[in-house]
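One such given next:

>
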Amino acid sequence: MAKEHTDRTTLDLFAEERRPGRPKTSPLTRDEQLRINKRNQLRRDKDKGLQRVELKMPSEIVEALNTLAEKHQMSRSELIETMIASQLALAGD
C-alpha cells in the first residue's frame, strides 16, 4: 500500500512524522502562563482604578442585556456600567 501524504487515517504510517504546528515560545506550561497573564490583567485593572464585581442573575436578564448591548454596539460590561451610573445619577438628584 502506498503512503499518501493527505491520508491521516492510517496513523501507524505517520507515527514518526512531526506535524507542523505552533512553535513553543515559552518554557512555562500553559497553566503557568495563564496564571501570570491573569495576575498581570488584575494588576492593570487595579492601576486603572477598576474593581471586580460579580453578580448572579437569571439567564433571561443576561440574554436581555446581551441583546441590548449588541444593539448599542458595546460590551455587556460597558452596558451594565452605564446603566448603574445613570441610576446613581438619578438617585443623587
About this structure: Helices lie at 30-47, 59-71, 76-92. The chain has a mean pLDDT of 85.
